Amino acid sequence: MTSSNGRPPILRVEDLVTRFYTPEGVVHAVNGVSFELGEGETLGIVGESGCGKSVTVLSTLQLIPRPPGKIESGRAWFHDKDLLEMGSEEIRHIRGSQIAMVFQDPMTSLNPVLTVERQVAEPLIIHMGMTKHQAHDRTIELLQLVGIPEAEKRLADYPHQFSGGMRQRVMIAMSLACNPQILIADEPTTALDVTIQAQIVDLVKRLRDEIGMAIIWITHDLGVVARLAQRVIVMYAGYIIEEAPVRELYASPSHPYTLGLIGSLPRVDADQRQRLTAIRGVPPLLYQKPVGCPFAVRCNYAFERCKENPPLMLVGTEHRVACWWNVLEGRERNVR
Amino acid sequence: MSDDQVLLKVDGLVKHFPVLRGVFQRQVGAVHAVDGITFEIRRGETFGLVGESGCGKSTAGRTILQLYRPTAGQVTFDGVNLVGLSREELRKMRRRMQMIFQDPYASLNPRMTVADIISEPLIVHGVTRGDETMERVNELLEVVRLSSSFGARYPHEFSGGQRQRIGIARALALNPDLIVCDEPISALDVSIQAQVINLLEDLQQDFGLTYLFIAHDLSMVRHISKRVAVMYLGILVELTSVKELYAHPLHPYTQALLSAVPVPDPVIEQSRQRIILVGDVPSPVNPPSGCRFRTRCPIAIEKCAIEVPEWREITPDHWVACHLA
Fold it and tell me: Which one, of A100, A60, A84, lies nearest residue A183 by Cα?
């Protein structure tokens, strides 16, 4: 298992399998995912739409709609308790206070008919047992913390009176209300403009350093991950296909998919105009569990052995990859 | 620059949308979506138009193609001023100017087969008849690297990237000179974006196309464009070659925008100093006086609130609108 940068793990997910039973068939969304999150660590989960990155995290918090979703197996240890075994009351208490979430679209996660004060203060009253008066003061503090100008005057405003970036700040204020140990951010900056995205990323970075919470940052943007994360998991077709400390991952990406993703990105700081190395084909629809390596059909390195699904193999300090081919050395990987 | 090198000339283009209120729909104001932009696109080049959402870049693209009739200004395409042309005259010109849209889900009619979608412009403009049409459709499908057997299928059967290829095939049907690409890849997954960009580059080579590439992604614009204009709240703030813009950005907005783009490299990214802009883009109904960027500008002075900065050429081919540049 992962040592997560030597920190004691605060969250440990083991062999998670989630499927969706839809009228069109069974979607194999998550196919046996295991990872750890260290205390105070920032973990990036990267992948394209439909790779299972959100479902993985939503499953651990019992937030997927059931039905059609079903967690087939797995464990999610938060301290000494399995989140997947908890009753709805217990998990709700954890979600509101110790593990907080921020979603992509703040407009759909905020209640449009309640004032911002009501929404930020609610968890303070429910989970922290504050009085209305205490909650009022703390709400102002929180809104100031996330950089909302003239916070006191804006308490009575409704979500539609805030801009996209400001709404995301309100979401972050809400999520921080109960001093969570883990903040889960699911594509929180995807809908925002770059200058606003930069504001939010730097805000989260500052808050992390001040408060010391662990963060899981789910995104398709390898640039944002490079700025924020200490360790990165790359997902494809419901599997973790590579996992490494952030610098290691970008310096020596070892899965052909990771390599392809990095190659498909033009860089704002690069001068030469190279042709982008596109990955051919499209990500699979997961109506069948892939036989063999899920990436093989799109892979330029695929060979005979890829008919067998490779497990995550250790290839460096804390660097794991699920691939039979050693791309860096151009030969088959030595295992077994 | 000699005129025959220039394919498209946009001169003081303005597009305002009325804000109506009350029972009688009285006009109470106007959204200044595009408020006087001037630039030229040369034959065979890719011209990037970047800006954040709401800056007016898409409106600019549509107004250039006369999909919106401009409030003021001129658009000269290959020597012909498009503003003021009759519908019929404009229809003839439209063959030479096409558009690729952002959303490949909304821009294809779900009730039409792929072949119908691609052949529609051919039929509308009376370019081909009968068997010829199907031949041309198959040829176009091949050009965008789709199987010709896809013609009989419907858009919902395809992925986002494939749909975008269908949209590209439709745009190519009439052999246009200019294609306005309005955020053509921002709805696609990263691995698919590169496929579409490579395809657009190949097509430009093969057919000598000129692109107006509208996007918010500065890295992609840097990759594909030769010259770039940066737009903010309805106006251009800077325009120059891609090399110059990224090496020597002169406008504080361009500088902030460039520093805000994350670089996929943790070594650089975690130590990079960024200019973080405060606040949000003001409303285009009441743009700020003087320089429109002054409310967020880290170096604004008093003059910026009073005087509109002149659009001037600071070094050859490097235009900027800032008092302090």
Answer: A100
Q: In this predicted complex, what is the ipTM? A: 0.78
Query: Cα distance from A59 to chain B (closest Cα, Å)?
Result: 23
- Band (pLDDT 50/70/90 cuts) for residue B4 is low
Mutate which: B190, B261, B267, vs A, most A CBs within 10 A: B190
Q: Which of A265, A238, A239, A261 is nearest to A249 (CA)?
A: A261
Report pLDDT for A2: 45
Q: What is the pLDDT of residues B141-177, one digit of tens each?
A: 999 989 888 999 999 988 888 999 999 999 999 999 9
Tokens of A130: 């504050």
Provide the edge-to-edge strand list for the sheet that holds A239-245.
A99-102, A182-186, A214-219, A42-46, A231-236, A239-245, A319-321, A313-316
- Cα separations (Å) of A325 from A256, A278, A312? 9, 19, 12
Distance CA A331, CA A316 (A): 17
Q: Which residues in chain A (26-65) have CB-CB distances under 8 A to chain B?
A: 48-49
Q: What is the pTM of this model?
A: 0.85
A276 contacts on B by Cβ (under 8 Å): 194, 197-198, 223
Partner B, chain A 268-327, Cβ-Cβ below 8 Å: 268-271, 273, 275-280, 282-283
Contacts of B131 (CB under 8 A, 6+ apart): none
Separation CA A99–CA A123 (nearest Å): 12
A163: Cβ contacts below 8 Å, ≥ 6 apart: B280
Lowest mean pLDDT among A175-189, A211-225, B135-149, B270-284: B270-284
Q: Count CA within 13 A, CB hemisphere, residue B220.
A: 24
Q: How many CB atoms lie within 10 A of CB A39?
A: 16
Q: Please return the burial class of A317, using the count of CB atoms within 10 Å of its CB with bins 0-12, 13-18 and 19+.
A: exposed
Query: What element of type H or E holds B80?
Result: strand B80-81
Contacts of B52 in chain A (CB under 8 A): 193-196
Residue-wise pLDDT tens digits, A227-236:
899 999 999 9
- A264 contacts B266? CB cut-off 8 A: no
Query: How far apart are the C-alpha atoms of B223 and A324, rounded to whole Å?
Result: 33
Q: What is the pLDDT of residue B187?
A: 80
Q: How many CB atoms lie within 10 A of CB B99?
A: 23
Contact assessment for residue A61 and residue A69, using Cβ atoms and an 8 Å cutoff: no
What lies within 8 Å, CB to CB, of B8 at 6+ separation is B40, B41, B64, B75, B76, B77, B78, B178, B210, B212
Give CA–CA dist B238/A254, Å, rounded: 41
Q: Indicate whether A24 pLDDT > 80.
A: yes
